[in-house]
Amino acid sequence: MDIRIGIANSPREISFESSQAQAEIEKSVADALDSKSTFLRLSDDKGKAYIVPVASLAYVEIGSEESRRIGFVA
């Protein structure tokens, strides 16, 4: 699952791949925005944690769950 997080007042974005399901990621983002939580925490395929302040979130783009194929398919 490809995830891109836009940060307010920053020209760069955070981009990574996660093994979490799309529904789990949507729920995490919605819970962080609805609650009094000050941070959104997501993790990638390699175990790295990304902690972003909710106040600086510009957008969260969640890609498809289908993995990309690389190379030739026989």
Number of helices: 1
How large is the share of residues in beta strands?
A: 35-45%
Q: From the 3D coordinates, which CATH architecture would you assign?
A: Roll
User: What is the percent of helical residues?
Assistant: 10-25%
The CATH C-level class name: Mainly Beta
Task: Flag low-confidence runs.
Answer: none
Distance between the termini: 24 Å
* Shape label: globular
Number of domains: 1
The overall strand count is: 5
Structural class comes to: alpha+beta
Please list the strands of the largest sheet in the order they lie side by side: 2-1-5
* N-to-C order of helices and strands: EEHEEE
CATH-defined fold name: SH3 type barrels
What does this structure look like?
It comes from Lysobacter korlensis. With 74 residues, the protein is α+β, with helices and mostly antiparallel strands. The chain has one domain (2-62): SH3 type barrels (Roll), CATH 2.30.30. It is built from 1 helix and 5 strands, in the order ββαβββ. The protein has one helix spanning 22-34; strands spanning 2-7, 13-17, 39-43, 49-53, 57-62. The strands form 2 sheets. A 3-stranded antiparallel β-sheet has the order 2-1-5, with helices on one face. A two-stranded antiparallel sheet has the order 3-4. A hairpin with a 5-residue loop joins strand 1 (2-7) and strand 2. The longest helix is centred in the middle third of the chain and has 13 residues, at 22-34.
